[in-house]
Amino acid sequence: MPSLAGSTSPEGLPQDTPQDTPLAGLTSFDLTTAEGMAMLRHFDARLRRLGDPGAQRAAVRRLRCRAPLSDRAAGLLVLPGGALALREAEEVLVCDTAAVQALAGPQAARLAALLAGAADLVSVVHGPSGLRRLAGLPPSGLAQAATLLPEARILAPLLPPAATWAGPALLRWGPMGREGGGGQGGVVAWPMVPAPSRLALGASVAGEALLAAAAPVAPEIWDAPEGDDRYQLLSTGLFAHLDELLGNEVSDLLRFELVDHWTDGEDSLASELADGVGLLPACFATPHDRPVGMAALAGWPRAAGLLAGAGEPLALLGIAARDWGLAWRPALRQAFLRQLRGLLPAGSPALLVPEEARAAPQPLAQLAADRQLRASGSDVSVLLPLPPHPSALLRLADRLAGGIGAPVLLAVPAWGLCHRFDPAGGGEAGNAAWFGHAAADPAG
């Protein structure tokens, strides 16, 4: 590196004498303030005095900047991956997964009746052309629909914890959750809370506004079920925002290096935000006529048919040879049955359902279920009634997988919950995080 006037700081930037300049040891700038932007310009001036491109890049890579939210969209937003957020002035609200509540069957129908006369409800429905915003509750019979409640406390008569919720709440309806008379309907409710600053930034640069009386928002704009897909949308949004924010403030050198730092690679902010947005509950996915999160049930056609035809919402706990591999042995399948019986309440009307068509379903409590499980080599599931809260099912499936040391699938179509628990970790997949299981602060 060529000789520079003054000494060099630990951050690789030339340091003036005396060593108490404003940038000595400073690697964090708040670009939402005039002072922070001025400090970044000072950093830029000193950065350009470095003649080594590698040292310049390394110095920028140490920076952690807080940027203001983008002004591109406000109001109700759909994020990459199908989650909803609410942008109000300089605050972005997202679902608080740790406070999730759920109802099913007649209780879900009662909630729909409770909200029928409420004012200022806004719903979003997914149809063949994309997402459309409507006033009031969504029509019945849709596979994917959500409702934003301005005041979450209106839910308290049926969801007592909502009495302590301040501000709005988001409801995601099951495929038949707005039907009268109960049946298979379900609804999941989350209070909306301020997002961490970095996640709020991501929502502002990549969220698409859902406007009243506007054309549907096409899936190509927001449908990003995989992390790599969300990363591309967030990377593009961050690039455009930083380019506009810094275009007239700093040199091209610093601007390009910052954009690259924020948008390129697995350790970039764009990649971090792609993971964080994936932890938010997705209300929508493609195709429009398939409930969110239920793709895994395609491998369980017989059980899925029984779920759809049942008179009440049910949960599925399943084990599959494709997931177990060499562990798919009669003794371990029997251990699954034995442990499940020990975890369920006495007298639970659970039903063992082999995927083999010629094998008849058997009540879990009867010895015929044991014989069926030993004799049949097909995948098998257990259908059981729903508890009052998703957390009970999540704990049950997690304990069951850990106890037998093999993967277990949990699915609840009425709530859009589907997760494969794998004690080895490698095969863990699904949306349990949307329901508060091992909830983390996304992109904090």
State the main characteristics.
444 residues; alpha+beta; ten-stranded antiparallel beta sheet; seven-stranded antiparallel beta sheet; globular
Summarize, please.
The chain is α+β, with helices and mostly antiparallel strands and 444 residues long. It has helices at residues 34-47, 53-61, 106-115, 197-206, 219-222, 227-246, 252-263, 269-278, 301-309, 321-324, 330-343, 367-375, 390-404; strands spanning 7-8, 14-15, 28-30, 64-66, 75-78, 84-88, 91-95, 101-104, 122-127, 130-135, 145-149, 169-173, 186-194, 208-209, 314-319, 351-354, 362-363, 380-385, 408-412, 417-421, 429-430. The strands form 4 sheets. Strands 5, 6, 7, 8, 9, 10, 11, 12, 13 and 14 form a 10-stranded antiparallel β-sheet that branches. A 7-stranded antiparallel β-sheet has the order 17-16-18-15-19-20-21, sandwiched between helices. It has a two-stranded antiparallel ribbon with strand order 1-2.
